[in-house]
Fold:
Amino acid sequence: MKHSTSPTPSLAGSSYAPSYATSRGQSPLPPPANHTRNCLSATSKSYKYLRRLLKFNQMDFEFAVWQMIYLFISPQKVYRNFNYRKQTKSQFARDDPAFLVLLVICLCVTSVVLAWTMGLNFLQSISFILYVVFVDCIFAGIIVASFLWIVTNRYLRSSSLEPDIEWGYAFDVHLNAFFPPLILLHFVQLFFYDWVISQPWFFSRLLGNTFWLCALSYYIYITFLGYNCIPHLKNTRLILIPLPIIFLFYLVTVIIGWNVTISFINFYKYRVY
Structure:
C-alpha cells in the first residue's frame, strides 16, 4: 500500500513544540507539514488530482477498498487517516482519485442491476446510469459540499485565524457519506424489492422505508464524523440536527401508508421515459 499505516505522532503538547517557535534552525527535526513553504495552491491541487484520474497505475485501489469497507464497520478510522494526511501532506482532501473511481464503478454496476429490476431497456439504462453518476452523486455532491464548506468556514471555525476547510475535503466527506447509502439502496434493498417491498403490505413499506431511514442516517452520521474530526471546528453536532426530523418523517410515512421506495422507483422511471 502507498499509504503509511503508522503515521508520525503529533508533536503538539510535547517537549519538542517550543523548538519550532524559538529556534527552528537548531532543531534536528523537519518543520511540521502545515508549515512547509512549498504547499500547493487549491488550483494546483485540483489540477494534480484531475490529471491523476487518467493514470490508473498511480492510484492506490487497495487503500480505497479498505476505506470503503471501514466506512461500514468503523468510519472513524477512515477520518483518522485524513488527519494523518494533513500532518504529512498539509491537506485534508484526498490527493488520490482511486476512491472516486471505485465509487463511480460501484454506481454503474448497481445502477445496471437497478435498471434491470425496473425493466428499463438499453438506452433507458444508459440514461439512468448517467443520471445517477452525474446528477445524484456528483452534482448533488457539489451542492451539499459547497453548502457545508461555506457554513463550516463561516460559522463553525473556532477562530478566524484558523485555516479554512478545503472544498476538496468537503466533497470527499460527501463521497464517503454517499457510499454506504448507495450499497443499502441500490444493492441490498433490491434483494427484497420484488417479493416484499413492492407489495401493498404494511411490512412492505415498513421495510422499504427503514432502508431509507438507515441510508439517510448513515449519510448524516458519516458527514458529521468528517467535520467533527477537525480540531478547530466547534458545534459540529449541529450537523446531526436532521436526524430526529428524518425519524419523525419515517414514522409519518409508515403511518399514512406511503412506500418511499416505490415512489423513488417511479421517479427514477419518470426521469428516463
